[in-house]
Design a protein that fits this description.
The structure is a single chain. Helices cover 43% and strands 0% of the residues. It has seven helices and no strands.
């Protein structure tokens, strides 16, 4: 006998979230910059192109060993996939398992009367605002960069760059 109420399924721990979407976007960015199709990347990893699509959309989580393989095939450090992460990370802090108990190496020097631990920002691949960094994931940008570097004469490349700069608004 049903009461007509549908119980909402709790989100499983393995469900993909904003971090997975961010990592997927970084996979797509690097793949397109290298000129690889989803099929070619899949072949290099022993996967189908559908699985690559799911990773890139953030529909599936990328495990640690798969992330290692992706970094190797795409010739980037693992940290590349997490560059600009603060823009994709959830705004809420994770809840500790036992907030009143801190043991082992998790304690900071402040616990022992020393100065508090300083947090160091990891280096980012692109030191750009998020809206400008997003330009690098557009196909038009990738095509422009590829075409630019196909120009064999460096002096012609420089003149093209000067021309393109002259067409846009003056930098402040």
């Amino acid at each position: 006998m049903s009461t007509g109420h549908v119980k909402a399924e709790p989100k499983s721990a393995s469900a993909a979230g904003p971090v997975d979407v961010h990592v997927g976007n970084r996979i797509r960015l690097r793949r397109t910059l290298m000129g690889l199709s989803q099929e070619k990347l899949g072949e290099a990893l022993g996967l189908t192109f559908q699985q690559i699509q799911k990773y890139e959309r953030g529909a599936n989580r990328v495990g640690a060993s798969r992330l290692y393989d992706l970094a190797r095939v795409l010739d980037v450090p693992i940290g590349f996939f997490f560059d600009d992460m603060q823009d994709a990370a959830p705004k809420t802090a994770p809840v500790p398992l036992q907030p009143s108990v801190t043991t082992g190496f998790a304690e900071t020097q402040a616990t022992f009367g020393g100065p508090p631990r300083k947090t160091v920002q990891p280096p980012r691949l692109f030191d750009l605002p998020a809206d400008e960094a997003a330009l690098f994931s557009r196909r038009e940008t990738v095509d422009l960069v590829r075409s630019y570097y196909r120009i064999p004469d460096p002096s012609v490349r420089k003149r093209m760059l000067d021309l393109i700069r002259s067409l846009g608004p003056a930098e402040e």
